[in-house]
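In this supplementary section we document a worked example of the pipeline. Step one takes a protein sequence of length 105 as its only input; no multiple sequence alignment statistics are reported here. Step two produces a three-dimensional model, which step three serialises into structure tokens for compact storage. The input and output of this example are shown verbatim.
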Amino acid sequence: MLKNLWNDESGVILSAEIVLVGTILVLGMIVGLVELQCAVVGELSDLGDAIGNLDQSYQTSSITSSKSTGGFKAATYGASYYDQRDECDCNAIIVCAKNTGEKRI
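The serialised model returned by step three reads:
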């Protein structure tokens, strides 16, 4: 029985094919994951640019209410805030360039 098992070569080609197919699948998966990573980084860069472009400036006017006899019943002051550009608004980050090995900024 051990001699029959030792001389049996019917599974050798099958295991070599499985190793070859597995290697091709792993390499394809690595390339696919790299492209997925580049796409996610690009979309997150767009999201960061959109958040950086939000303008939080506002202005409210004052309100006054007068008595019929003259004078003020109530008054509020207006308020305003001007959102100045920060140093880090809309910074370009490194993303993957398509079909080249280069990186662009």
